[in-house]
Amino acid sequence: MGFSNCTILSNARVLDTLDGRILQHLGWNVPNEEIIHIPEHWLTFPDVDKSLHFMLGIVYFFFFAAAMIGNGMVLWIFCSAKSLRTASNMFVVNLAFCDFIMMLKAPIFLYNTFHSGFAMGYLGCQIFASMGALSGIGAGMTNACIAYDRYSTITRPFDGKISKIKAFVMIVIVWVYTVPWTIFPLTEIWGKFVPEGFLTTCSFDYLTRTFNNRVFVGTIFTFSYVFPMMLIIYFYSQIVSKVFSHEKALREQAKKMNVESLRANQQNSESAELRIAKAAITVCFLFVASWTPYAVLALIGAFGDQSLLTPGVSMIPACTCKLVACIDPYIYAISHPKYRQELQKRLPWLGVNESSDTQSTATEATAQQSATA
């Protein structure tokens, strides 16, 4: 694995003294047959206090509960309600599925955390990292599809509506695009999955300074982060430009007609459009914000000063990328009118109050706006 056993074992088992107290290094409690899978970089750091493990475990438990409930409800309602079976909502379901998988691996982390380290071993690490790669890259590309759907709908309201077949093909492409980035490191054809930080989480190896591994890190950074982010930014910048020009044209026309607004009878449609557009933009912004720390971490590990990557620092992006999986479903619950109607109908005890005459999709609202413009 690129390390000598004697070097790893000496780093992992060494005991230092600090003010008369014994200081153990990370990996001190890992069996000999498992420690060879841990990058030597982490084994040089002092062991983490149990209180930090327990604190992270509590945080992850709440992440896990929020994501399971939120994404589970999205999958249940969007798949079972006929009124929500639209092409656009197929992307919503796929995103919820990705977020569901992202947090479904939390029990592995919790087991490692409450056993203070690499308790699930190599197999648990590979499962954890594989689920993270599938769900993370899949969510990024799904967000790009959502951005394209909104872009197509708003910029071409009459012929830009995506059909269910096209949406299905796009989702298949997303998974065909995503799977190789999991298979390559899982089989160690290119790159590999290794423990990181407190040795309770796993990700692809961004620490090994071989030419092959650096190329892998640069490539996966480009195709799993830069590419979807550029698509998201492009599509939403085009949407903003289109909306601004459209609003300007409406204001000029209203001025010529000596009226305050041409939208007096479209208040509900505009409200639905605004709410759904805000939800889509917010979800995509959260993706960029949550995965940027991990991207920076990987670049520093492969090309920068590795001394900056302490176990504590590495756990920050590990938490931010999980947080978005918890927030996404609640954004849709708040902003999607027909989703709220279904919640009101099926789970009245939640206290959701949504009028039944509100438009539910960005396509419907945009088409009505454009038809009257």
Structure in words:
This protein has 14 helices and four strands. Helix 5 (87-104) packs antiparallel against helix 12, helix 7 (121-155) packs antiparallel against helix 8 and helix 7 (121-155) runs parallel beside helix 10 (211-256). A hairpin with a 2-residue loop joins strand 1 (15-18) and strand 2 (21-24). The protein is mainly α and 373 residues long. Strands 1-2 form a two-stranded antiparallel sheet. A two-stranded antiparallel sheet has the order 3-4. The longest helix has 46 residues, at 211-256. 70% of the residues lie in helices and 4% in strands.
Q: Element order, helices and strands?
A: HEEHHHHHHHHEEHHHHH
- Rg for CA atoms: 24 Å
Instruction: Give the integer mean of the pLDDT values.
Output: 80
Q: Which secondary-structure class do the elements indicate?
A: mainly alpha
Order of strands, main sheet, comes to 1-2
Distance between the termini: 64 Å
Count the DSSP helices: 14
* Strand content bin: under 5%
Query: Mind describing the biggest β-sheet?
Result: 2 strands, antiparallel
Number of strands: 4
Segments where pLDDT lies below 50 for 5+ residues?
1-8, 265-271, 357-373
Helix content: over 70%
Q: What is the general shape?
A: globular
Transmembrane segments: 52-79, 91-114, 120-146, 167-184, 215-236, 279-303, 315-335
GO molecular function, one term: G protein-coupled receptor activity
Main location: membrane
Membrane topology: Multi-pass membrane protein
